[in-house]
Amino acid sequence: MIFDWAYALEILPLLGRALIVTIQATVLGMALAMPLGLVLALARRARLRLLSWPAALVIEFVRSTPLLVQLYFFFYVMPGLGLKFSPLLTGILALGLHYAAYCAEVYRAGIEGVPKGQWEAARALNLSPWRTATGIVLPQAIPPVVPALGNYLVAMFKDTPLLSAITVVEVLQQAKIIGSASFRYTEPITLAGVMFLVLSLAAAALVRYTERRLQLPGNRP
């Protein structure tokens, strides 16, 4: 099979528009997953069991069930409960919740990696839990876990083709539509793969840059 560059340029705008949908789902999904994951991590470490147990249950349940099942639940079951969203918004919510559970465990590992002396010093200074978390613990806990969070960003980007199961036309689905209409799959699938590769590498570079910017002074070479 020969790659037709003229045909590739012809279908490129269609794939580009679908790629915007893929990027939207990834960016907004991660924008939801990161703060929600932090909330779940803090709730799981709370001394109050009314907070820690439900948070632990949510985290383990979400991590133990496939993303595709969660997408179907949000898209087909939730409307019966009175919550109906557009396919794209449904996909963003499902991606955000799914990866929030993983981000929560990453945050928890970072928080537990803060030396106990920092917590004891905060208590000695009679700092409030809020001041302790925002002023002492989180500034030390988050920078070391940036690479792990970045890995989930790339993983979420590569999971966006699952949104086609709930009728979202992202870049890979658009490539399949073009291929089924023209019976020429080489160009659209190749272009979709190249787009995923380029943006995944760009996201990884952004994560490395962020890691360097957030690196703790004491850990700098």
* Annotated CATH architecture: Orthogonal Bundle
Q: Tell me what portion of residues adopts beta-strand conformation.
A: under 5%
Instruction: Tally the structural domains.
Output: 1
Distance between the termini: 51 Å
> Could you say which overall geometry the principal axes of the C-alpha atoms support?
elongated
What order do the helices and strands follow? HHHHHHHH
Q: How many strand elements?
A: 0
Main sheet properties? none
Computed Rg: 21 Å
Number of helices: 8
**Helix-and-strand structural type:** mainly alpha
Protein architecture, described:
The chain is mainly α and 221 residues long. It has a single domain (5-216), classed as MetI-like fold (Orthogonal Bundle). Helix content is 78%, strand content 0%. It is built from eight helices and no strands. The protein has helices spanning 5-44, 49-63, 67-77, 87-112, 116-124, 129-159, 171-182, 186-214. Helix 1 runs antiparallel to helix 6 (129-159), helix 3 packs across helix 4 and helix 4 (87-112) packs across helix 6 (129-159). It is elongated. Residues 216-221 have low confidence and may be disordered. InterPro entries: AA_ABC_transptr_permease_3TM, ArtM/GltK/GlnP/TcyL/YhdX-like, Ectoine_EhuD, MetI-like, MetI-like_sf. Belongs to the binding-protein-dependent transport system permease family. HisMQ subfamily. Residues 15-207 form the ABC transmembrane type-1 domain. It is found in: Cell inner membrane; Cell membrane.
